[in-house]
Write a structure and sequence with these properties.
Layout lengths: L1 H26 L7 H8 L3 H5 L5 H20 L11 H14 L1 H8 L5 H22 L5 H24 L6 H14 L10
Helix pairs in contact: 1-2, 1-6, 4-5, 4-7, 5-9, 7-8
Length: 195
């Protein structure tokens, strides 16, 4: 019973730290954030912070690593050759991951976001999608797939920004379907009637 209580306490503490960190990162660059102000905002003492992280950069690295792993897990079904997974199912899982990490997405896309981390996310998506595209579109050149991914990924970032700005009130499945329809029909998406 004590281990369960400790695990819960650690999760809550890390959530408080993460919330304080992303709030501060929305206001200023990481190099301007001190452990002291983060702890004050999180309502914890410095010893508690240092029992989990070596410094602010270690905190950032761990949060980003967790999100990268979440994204890898959400894209993993795409790589199984035997699996029958529709693009909208994959897109739904990706947007679910982004919603679960909306605090980090907001920061990453914001003024003080880690652009290197955004490139890691983009490259992960690129690798997974190109691998998947090669199974579905066997006669398409890698160069053509690269251009398609560059176009689509930029559009998905724009869609994510809009969804974040709207408070993510639209259901994940709806956003995933919108992304899929835009990818598959381009401007023809605007001619479709509303459901």
């Amino acid at each position: 019973m004590k281990k369960v209580t400790n695990d819960h306490r650690i999760r809550v503490t890390k959530l408080l730290i993460r919330k304080a960190f992303t709030n501060l990162l929305n206001q200023k660059p990481i190099q301007s954030i001190s452990v002291k102000e983060l702890c004050e905002l999180a309502g914890i003492n410095r010893g508690t912070f240092y029992s989990h992280y070596t410094d602010i950069y270690d905190l950032c690295d761990q949060i980003e690593a967790d999100m990268l792993q979440d994204l890898k897990n959400s894209m993993e079904p795409m790589l199984h050759k035997d699996a029958i997974v529709t693009p909208v199912q994959i897109t739904t899982e990706i947007f679910r991951c982004l919603k679960e990490n909306s605090d980090l997405c907001t920061v990453t896309l914001g003024k003080y976001g880690d652009k290197e981390f955004m490139m890691k996310l983009m490259n992960l998506g690129r690798e997974q999608c190109l691998e998947s595209y090669s199974h579905y579109f066997k006669n398409t050149s890698p160069r053509k797939m690269e251009y398609f991914y560059a176009f689509v990924s930029s559009g998905c970032i724009g869609l994510l920004r809009k969804w974040l700005a709207d408070g993510m009130v639209s259901p994940i499945e709806e956003i995933a379907k919108i992304a899929e329809k835009i990818m598959l029909s381009g401007i023809g998406f605007l001619q479709e009637t509303e459901d």
